[in-house]
Design goal:
single chain; about 425 residues; alpha/beta; six-stranded mixed β-sheet; four-stranded parallel β-sheet; 14 helices; 13 strands; about 40% helix; elongated
């Protein structure tokens, strides 16, 4: 069973020697290019402390075997390599059934994680806030509940080695399932309290008329670097998958003097575990309520188009509609080879919603700020408001937030013409 995320001893001892395998399943018509898939899998492994990634390999699989995934010949070949290189952990970049996991661990004499398990491990290591920790624990327990066929140890036991991989012996499945269900219930109750607190914070922000701009994108696309550039914050920004998990929000003043709330969200990834999509739905509610979504792409990455499709798929899964205004940022333009850069910028110029920049150097940043300003202006509507002199607070509020375009005064009050967003209108009506 799993040790709760962040439990003591989860990263103790020497680094585990790990082998990364990317199964290239020939029958899968939608499979990713093997080389880039392996590179991302290795990057995921290297993002987890306590691992010494010895090497990675693409393993062609004509037909996945239901019991072992790989054929007998490849199984024996990999076994010899694992033994020769003293591998203690095998990471398989793809889904592995509980039966396959049990059989492979027995055959190779190692611990094994599939892609979902590895991503859950990384999230468990990175979660910083109370809500983040609870969400990861909930996702991990939901994932582990389906894998009781190979339960390692009792849920309550402290474990050595990496969080999900290690520990002695088999246990009673029903007892483990009951323990997991009880833990899930307890965590959901705790999360319910956190979600209520988040809802109160969101309600408080809704009273402030500032539009919300949400940064979304594939992990390591440069969202946090861009966020830091725009806000002057010091959010962790590293060349690492899932460098940041918990959302961060800051106020930013645009060139017009208008303030907006900028939100930096968790990075997406292909084949993101469904447990994590569900668990982090509350965290990503800022995206659902955003006035503008800025999709940040690493335009220098060989799979930038596939990554963009993955991001769009997850946004749809979260319930983000196409009605929400969007901008697309082609980041890391400074890393695009000189012979390709002109073509990339020409292509971007043909799409008014696309902007090329380098969050690292600051190139193109001013143009993006102008585009954000224009986009937010574009979602505003004009209205006329009648206020009595007794509504001095509302009158002052409209002027403080630069919403007044014209104003006339008579003996009983003001006739005011305003230009505002739906969020600003709601905030005004609640005053």
């Amino acid at each position: 069973m799993t040790q709760p995320a962040g439990g003591e001893g989860a990263r103790s001892g020497p680094d585990e020697r790990a082998l990364v395998l990317h199964p290239d399943i020939q029958s899968d018509q939608h499979r990713r290019p093997a080389a880039s898939g392996l590179a991302e899998a290795i990057a995921l492994a290297e993002a987890l402390p306590g691992l010494d990634v010895v090497r990675g390999a693409v393993v062609p699989v004509r037909t996945p075997q239901p019991g072992t995934l790989f054929g007998s010949g490849k199984l024996e070949e990999l076994k010899q390599q694992i033994k020769a290189e003293e591998i203690g952990l095998v990471l398989i970049d793809g889904p592995v059934t509980p039966v396959q996991q049990r059989n492979l661990e027995k055959e190779w004499g190692v611990k094994l994680l599939d892609r979902t398990g590895l991503i859950l491990e990384i999230f468990a290591d990175r979660a910083a806030t109370r809500e983040g920790v609870l969400q990861v624990e909930l996702a991990a327990l939901s994932y582990q509940r389906t894998r009781l066929v190979r339960a390692w140890t009792h849920l309550e036991r402290q474990r050595g080695g990496l969080g999900f991989v290690g520990g002695p012996g088999e246990t009673q499945i029903e007892a483990d399932r009951r323990a997991i269900d009880e833990a899930i219930t307890r965590i959901r109750r705790q999360l319910g309290k956190v979600v209520k607190t988040r809802a109160l914070h969101r309600a408080s922000r809704a009273k402030v008329p500032f539009p919300v701009v949400a940064l979304v994108g594939y992990t390591n696309a440069g969202k946090s670097t861009l966020f830091n550039r725009l806000t002057g914050a010091e959010v962790l920004a590293k060349d690492m998958l899932f460098a940041t998990l918990d959302p961060t929000m800051r106020a930013v003043k645009l060139t017009t003097g208008q303030k907006v709330i900028l939100s930096d969200t968790v990075g997406f990834i292909s084949d993101l575990p469904t447990q994590l999509v569900a668990a982090f739905r509350a965290t990503l509610e800022e995206v659902l309520s955003a006035d503008l979504i800025v999709h940040v792409r690493d335009i220098s990455h060989v799979e930038t188009e596939a990554q963009a499709r993955d991001v769009e798929a997850i946004l749809q899964d979260l319930g983000v509609t196409e009605d929400t205004p969007r901008l697309e940022v082609w980041n890391k333009i400074d890393l695009v080879p000189a012979e390709s850069r002109e073509a990339v910028e020409t292509l971007a110029a043909r799409r008014p919603e696309v902007h090329t920049l380098s969050a690292w150097t600051g190139e193109g940043l001013d143009a993006l700020v102008e585009a954000v300003t224009e986009a937010l202006d574009g979602i505003r509507s004009d209205a006329e408001v009648r206020l009595a002199f007794s509504d001095g607070r509302k009158h002052a509020w409209l002027h403080e937030n630069r919403l007044v375009t014209a104003e006339r005064q008579d003996d009983s009050g003001w006739d005011i013409e305003v230009r505002w967003t739906a969020r600003q209108k709601d905030a005004f009506e609640r005053l």
